[in-house]
Amino acid sequence: MKINDKFFMKLAIDEAWKYQFLTYPNPAVGCVVVKGDSEILSIEAHKEAGKPHAEVNALKEAFLKYHPNDVLKTYSDSFQIHDYLIRNHNGFFNDCRVYVTLEPCNHTGKTPSCANLLKELKPKKVIIAHKDLNEQAKDGQKTLEAASIECEVGCMQKEAYNLLYPFLKWNSSTFIFYKMAQTLNGTIDGGKISSNHALAYVHALRDRVDLLVIGGNTVRVDKPILDARHVIGRPPNVMIYSKRKIFDKNIPLFKVPNREVTISNDLFKLLDNKFVMVEGGYNLLEKLKEKIDFIVLLVTPKMRAGLNIENEMEMDFEIIHENFIGKDKLMYLKRK
Prior knowledge:
Blueprint: H1 5-17, E1 30-35, E2 39-45, H2 54-66, H3 78-88, E3 96-102, H4 114-121, E4 125-130, H5 140-146, E5 150-153, H6 157-172, E6 175-183, H7 196-208, E7 211-215, H8 216-222, E8 238-241, E9 261-264, E10 275-279, H9 282-288, E11 294-300, E12 317-325, E13 328-335
Parallel strand pairs: 3-4, 4-5, 6-10, 6-11, 7-8, 7-10, 8-9
Antiparallel strand pairs: 1-2, 1-3, 11-13, 12-13
Helix pairs in contact: 2-3, 4-5
């Protein structure tokens, strides 16, 4: 029976996208563990910086599928999970294939090395979508192969690169993404558009970014708060893009504690940050279209009259991933 590696790797990539941006400053990574030819034991991802990596989550859940009452289920610390699996695996993973979107890390930082864990567990094969380009973490493949574990690199490499791209960009310069919510017919105004599920996701993004950018007209008309209260998160620092400096400082935006709000039309200020989120409509998108890396588009399944594109605007992006948050379609678009 021919094993379809792309099928299993796509599961890992799709799982990782659920946590894209939420792992900042770490990359989003997915992992699938398959026993024998086709038994999927786990589909997991890295979910938060400083927490267990995708491989650790996947190996833990795979082990628990056969040992559901094991004490391992009570462990959430990466070092504890590593140590427990190394001492208690008893060859469980020897007939398993591990699919991971990024080469297992080869160093110990806030979490231990995934390559060293896999070296001890000795799975039958590790399939890697993309090599790790980080100088500190790379060469996990070498560690695995030195332990006589078969590795294959490059399965769905392009798709894995798209997943990895934000991490590569914010590590070298500034990554900027533009978040927009609209109806099926492109309307972007008229009050709340997205579902509560999608709203919580946007608040989770705000909790992670270094800077949130919004247009001056939106502030004057909508009087937003722009915090992360729906996930009990950290309110982002805000830059209001505007030539006019006068705003009503009594609106909610200026009343949120523990954050800075600046007013500027100097787009070079964005480069003082690593991870920037822009929320706005078509006018602000037109001004920033040459600077943004991704568009994150939330499309709600309804139509209504309202503001659409008012002027000619040409942008060349490709959809690199899409999934659903509740009833809303979430699309990630990358500049071609």
